[in-house]
């Protein structure tokens, strides 16, 4: 898959996220699989219709619901930056949890900063 890489505020690469891929392909089978997996993972029912996302830092309104409550996203939006790599306070403690569960996202942001 070519094209530009979309990096979320927290360093997650959206293009690699199954929800993003299912949305771009408009693939309902994939949406059903993800919804099932996420329902098991989060212990509450997630419907396939819920799996629609163009990335959390784009103009698009198609986003997974819980992104609206994400403090990292709200903070990055308030600062009007593409992602946390562009922030003077990077890395702040809001990122601790996501860096622990997903170390690759830290590498992605560090790499952007080194450029
Ligand atoms: S909503 Fe928050 S945790 Fe999710 S990708 Fe965006 S910045 Fe990261
Ligand atoms: S303070 Fe900076 S690094 Fe921390 S969440 Fe906000 S934008 Fe990201």
Mean pLDDT level: 93
Ligands, ions, cofactors: iron/sulfur cluster
Main beta-sheet annotation: none
Residue stretches low in confidence (pLDDT < 50, at least 5 long) are none
Structural class: mainly alpha
**If you compute it from the alpha carbons, what radius of gyration comes out, rounded to the nearest whole angstrom?**
14 Å
The N- to C-terminal Cα distance equals 24 Å
Q: Return the string of H and E elements.
A: HHHHH
Shape: globular
Beta fraction: under 5%
Q: Could you outline the blueprint of secondary structure elements for this entry?
A:
Layout: H1 18-25, H2 28-42, H3 71-79, H4 96-101, H5 103-114
Helix pairs in contact: 1-2
The structure holds iron/sulfur cluster (2 copies).
Keywords:
about 120 residues; mainly alpha
Walk me through what this model shows.
- The two termini are 24 Å apart.
- This protein has helices at 18-25, 28-42, 71-79, 96-101, 103-114.
- The chain has a domain at 1-13 and 71-115.
- α1 runs antiparallel to α2 (28-42).
- The chain contains five helices and no strands.
- The protein is mainly alpha-helical and 115 residues long.
- The longest helix is centred in the first third of the chain and has 15 residues, at 28-42.
- The mean pLDDT is 93.
- One iron/sulfur cluster binds next to α3.
């Amino acid at each position: 898959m070519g094209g530009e890489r979309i990096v979320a505020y927290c360093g997650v690469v959206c293009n690699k996220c199954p929800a993003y891929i299912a949305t771009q392909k408009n693939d309902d089978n994939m949406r059903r699989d993800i919804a099932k997996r996420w329902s098991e993972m989060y212990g509450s029912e997630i419907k396939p219709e819920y799996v629609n996302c163009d990335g959390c830092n784009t103009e698009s309104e198609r986003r997974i619901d819980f992104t609206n409550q994400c403090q990292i996203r709200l903070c990055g939006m308030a600062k009007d930056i593409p992602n946390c790599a562009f922030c003077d306070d990077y890395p702040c403690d809001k990122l601790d949890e996501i860096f622990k569960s997903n170390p690759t996202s830290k590498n992605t942001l560090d790499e952007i900063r080194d450029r």
